[in-house]
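Many introductory courses stop at the sequence. We go one step further.
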Amino acid sequence: MTSALALGAAFLFAVAATLQQKGALALGVSPDSFKSFARLVGQRWWLAGSAALLVGYVLQAIALDHGRLSIIQPLLVTTVVFALPLGYWLTEQSVSSREIVGAVVVVAGLAVFAVVGDPAGGKENAPNDEWAIALLLITVVCVAVFLAGRGGTAAKQATTYGVIAGILFGASACLVKPTTEFLHQGISEVLSHWELYAMAIAGVLAFVLQQVSLSRGFLAKSVATVSVANPVVSVLIGSLLFDERLQRPLSHVLLAEAGLVVAMIGAVMISSSHETAVEAGQAELVPTG
């Protein structure tokens, strides 16, 4: 059940990214200033994408409330698989044979992980001091990625903002678990804990940065980087802070982890394939109405 919810969320995230990019391209603006972002809010394609994103968040939250970070979040890598045909149909982006192979690799790797992997144990929250260290490290990594990748080509900017958005989405998803746990105890309880506000801040920042990444015109690259960075952060936090473990024989654990690595490689193949196409002058996007 939780896996189906995660896949449903992944599909909606792909729909959202495609429609939001279509809206940005239709206006010919990049949401990296308040004025340009305000223009996007009135664009019908962008609004439809945002509605899909909101429903996707709800499905993801329900899945995380009943499942483990280490199984739910990796399934979101399928977002990039769903995004390929959607980008082809809705924003006229080319899909190369390398991207198709990458999508097959993603599905195969995740199939192995979902069947063999079975994270057990774990807890709903972590001590505040552990969270403080984790959030500090996340902040440092995001700043380092931004400084290393700012400027440059549109493809490089799409990657940079996509990676940072993925990291923040992963952190926000991890904070969903304690937030929903507090919510079960009542509205006043959830409002009295910092996790709710940290989740909201990380989520909003990730959302804005993903819009900037999408506006650069490289859907596969934007979605792939978010889809890889998000589960990497989530699995690390799930393992280190929430004590989630694969409770299987060692051979099954190794096979499950290998499947997850294969899925990540497939997502990277999709991203790097699009960059190669751009360098060859085959993927220039034109704003569409």
